[in-house]
Amino acid sequence: xxxxxxxxxxxxxxxxxxxxxxxxxxxxxxxxxxxxxxxxxxxxxxxxxxxxxxxxxxxxxxxxxxxxxxxxxxxxxxxxxxxxxxxxxxxxxxxxxxxxxxxxxxxxxxxxxxxxxxxxxxxxxxxxxxxxxxxxxxxxxxxxxxxxxxxxxxxxxxxxxxxxxxxxxxxxxxxxxxxxxxxxxxxxxxxxxxxxxxxxxxxxxxxxxxxxxxxxxxxxxxxxxxxxxxxxxxxxxxxxxxxxxxxxxxxxxxxxxxxxxxxxxxxxxxxxxxxxxxxxxxxxxxxxxxxxxxxxxxxxxxxxxxxxxxxxxxxxxxxxxxxxxxxxxxxxxxxxxxxxxxxxxxxxxxxxxxxxxxxxxxxxxxxxxxxxxxxxxxxxxxxxxxxxxxxxxxxxxxxxxxxxxxxxxxxxxxxxxxxxxxxxxxxxxxxxxxxxxxxxxxxxxxxxxxxxxxxxxxxxxxxxxxxxxxxxxxxxxxxxxxxxxxxxxxxxxxxx
Length: 496
Prior knowledge:
Blueprint: E1 5-7, H1 13-21, E2 27-30, H2 35-51, E3 58-62, E4 64-68, E5 75-79, H3 92-106, E6 107-108, E7 112-118, E8 125-131, E9 138-139, E10 142-147, E11 150-153, H4 156-176, H5 179-207, H6 212-253, H7 262-282, H8 284-287, H9 289-303, H10 312-322, H11 334-351, H12 361-366, H13 369-372, H14 377-391, E12 398-403, H15 409-416, E13 419-420, E14 426-431, E15 434-439, E16 446-453, H16 465-479, E17 482-487
Parallel strand pairs: 1-7, 2-3
Antiparallel strand pairs: 3-8, 4-5, 6-9, 7-8, 9-10, 10-11, 12-16, 12-17, 13-14, 14-15, 15-16
Helix pairs in contact: 2-3, 4-6, 5-6, 7-10, 7-11, 9-11, 10-11
Protein name: Schlafen AlbA-2 domain-containing protein
Domain Schlafen AlbA-2: 23-157
């Protein structure tokens, strides 16, 4: 059992956050410490985290009374401190020893605990963090777990889930710590050090005034090294993502619902942005200053350096864009792949719905057999013929960026024949072979654009993607802007 002891005059930021969160199944406020109840409380908390790993840690705050917040309905905590019978501040070291002895003597196997002595300068409290080790944990020959009404006996199904999760977690840990993966990470680390040395040498040669020709040759040598290194780092990140995906899958196999909190969505969103923007800046020379500038404006306008917890739907939609498995072009370079991801992220974020349901799910539903049999044979034949013609199209998905200074939303609607989405954040342009999405900027002239192939059946005549592509070029020429097709064959989104 790993043990840690820390003492603080005030409250740690983590403890302050617990007070703001209020009492929950994994957060307990106790006005005093009752030794005979300690072992059950600790074992139940450890088993609760084992049963629900997303909780991560069970925390008990001793010297904190429960207080109902009438404005929010949350059971908040009020510090009253730990004191002896004489009214003097309690000896926290003695209380801490009692906790450790209780755990050592009564709980098997031992959970991992961390104890903090906090607010010692005024109203002292003890903060006990509990994490499972090899669950389920037993106290007095019983399995107990923390519930909404306090400590209770664990059910057979709950114990079975914990056993399943424990076995699967052990398998994943073994995979994560495997020798091949460690060797791969060591190679990456060595490559990074080698590249840093090459950069240092290049800087020294610049100071020495070496010829432009030599510098050019050196850069040419360094570029493939940098590309291979970035790809290796990306591959190692992919391995980590695969392990994370496996963990989620096996948790599902263990018959436990997956939790995806607003905090997790926020973290994954920022991680996705940072990784792709870092890649773009590492290969800025290959993209060119103009295109890097377009991507920077797109990032500032539609994504940004941070995100809001409250925008859970938008964050989830953006994460889905980063987790795309397939690409239009399997040989797309790493920097263009990163640029394409940011374009799709901006589009899906403005849409506010993850792309799991498909762009034209309603049309797909209407094509099911039950609806077709209710139509006349003639209408069904016409619809099927049109859909079959559309499905035979070789138009693929595309992503790009438009820079249209001085062009209004109204003029785009008029020239492209599109309509605004319900949230007024996207311009939708339908064609017989798919749908254009253009995210509408608020403060600059950069428009992320995507073309999504789909079989579109409409009551009005629709223009082909080639016609829309020509109109986009005409708009670009008139306003002196630019069009850049980032990913895809270029049949729907032009490059000026």
